[in-house]
Specification:
Largest sheet: 2 strands, antiparallel
Structural class: mainly alpha
Number of strands: 2
Helix content: 55-70%
Distance between the termini: 33 Å
Low-confidence stretches: 1-22, 28-32, 38-49, 193-204, 393-404
Shape: globular
Order of helices and strands: HHEEHHHHHHHHHHHHHH
Mean pLDDT: 77
Number of domains: 2
Strand order of the largest sheet: 1-2
């Protein structure tokens, strides 16, 4: 039933109306399309005009789209929501019940939920490139539509006089969270050649470094939402620890503790690197904070297995750090390389699989020509995530990581 619906939907959307990405055909052709038929709300139930204005029967397309949405809601409720549990006693209820209920009221949150869930199904169908391709295309289309729908709501939060209700804070926060996690999952799933998801894995330059920059920028407004939520009398169901003091490590193994202490020494002693995209200032305190947050992430994982502090690393460091990383500033790369060893600990989650390993690999490649005293730390990070102990002394490590 569901697979019949998918084929109908792919057939009905073979000719684009240039509204939204991205059905399979149009992704591969570099074209825009209306996988979800963005204007369907304004169309009559049984007719639709294609890009040439020619009406055609779209009842099969509507049925296929409804089947897809039902499949996605079922997947969310039975599996995907479990991968979203966070460090809060009622997180399972929030993800399984409260988030879908809120999504029925806020369409952008529903799109965000469907996008993330479609990538979960893509992950489960990696052995079938055609089916995986279909779900990735669906995820991209839901994501783009959700971002368009969310824009006015997010803009409202920029107004200091705006007084949102708790349920709107919940919806905007979790839409942002889902969008960032979708970016990570999409990078993980599409790290192979886009024309053939079954082809051998290749390292595509800065895919995972750029992913981290994108997530940090996507989530740069979530801190403000968290602070806003903390001031509300009604609990909005948001993960809130925006003003937590500097974390202190208590559970690190000696090897990791020594490596992070070494990282602190290197970033404290290294000469500042000019940066064209960030205000000219000493960013040493920002780098020191990055190490403290890595320690906190390791502590949280050791204590209860939650990845909240792991994912909060980029958003807390903010846009300045993201710009430094984007420009390839050595200290930002070295800190991110060590963060990759923490992110690798979350690799059992489907949306983070190999993300830490690939981040370590890309950072170590870009650190070719770095100070020689940094080499042991780079080799430690690579070994920690299961990569060859290649040295960056010349052209950098060239062995692409194997997929586990």
């Amino acid at each position: 039933m569901i697979f019949f619906g998918r084929e109908v939907l792919l057939t009905c959307t073979a000719q684009c109306d240039e509204q939204l990405p991205a059905c399979t055909r149009c992704v591969k052709r570099g074209e825009k399309c209306s996988f979800l038929t963005a204007n369907s709300e304004q169309d009559s139930p049984n007719s639709h005009s294609n890009s040439n204005g020619t009406p055609h029967d779209c009842s099969a397309e509507q049925h296929a789209r409804q089947s897809l949405e039902l499949e996605l809601m079922h997947q969310w409720s039975t599996a995907t929501c479990k991968s979203m549990e966070y460090n809060r006693p009622d997180s399972r209820e929030k993800m399984a019940i409260d988030l879908p209920r809120s999504a029925l009221k806020y369409e952008y949150l529903l799109d965000g939920m469907f996008s993330f869930t479609a990538l979960h199904l893509a992950h489960e169908h990696q052995a079938d490139p055609h089916t995986m391709d279909y779900y990735v295309a669906a995820a991209m289309s839901f994501r783009d539509r959700g971002m368009q729908r969310a824009a006015p709501a997010i803009q409202e939060f920029q107004n200091i006089d705006y007084k949102p209700e708790a349920n709107e804070v919940f919806a905007v926060f979790w839409f942002a969270a889902l969008t960032g996690m979708t970016s990570m999952a999409l990078t993980v799933l599409t790290r192979r050649e886009p024309e053939n998801f079954a082809s051998p894995e290749i390292v595509t330059g800065r895919a995972f470094i750029n992913m981290h920059v994108e997530i940090a920028q996507l989530w740069r407004g979530t801190r403000a939402i968290m602070i806003f939520a903390a001031s509300m009398e009604t609990d909005p169901g948001v993960y809130i620890r925006p003003d937590e003091p500097e974390p202190q490590s208590t559970a690190l193994d000696p090897e990791t503790d020594a490596a992070l202490s070494q990282l602190e020494t290197f970033i404290s002693n290294a000469a500042p690197t000019p940066s064209s995209g960030v205000v000219d200032q000493d960013h040493t305190p920002l780098y020191i904070q990055s190490v403290a947050l890595i320690r906190k992430g390791y502590d949280t994982l050791a204590a209860n297995g939650h990845v909240d502090d792991t994912l909060a690393w980029g958003p807390i460091l903010g846009n300045d750090f993201a710009l430094l990383l984007k420009e390839g500033v050595p200290r930002a790369l070295l800190s991110t390389l060590c963060y990759g060893t923490l992110l690798d600990k979350a690799s059992r989650r489907w949306w983070a699989r190999d993300a830490g390993r690939m981040l370590v690999h890309e950072c170590s490649v870009e650190l070719a020509g770095c100070p020689e005293e940094w080499y042991p730390l780079i080799r430690w990070a690579r070994t920690r995530v299961g990569l060859p102990e290649a040295s960056p002394a010349s052209s950098g490590p060239s062995d692409p990581p194997s997929v586990g």
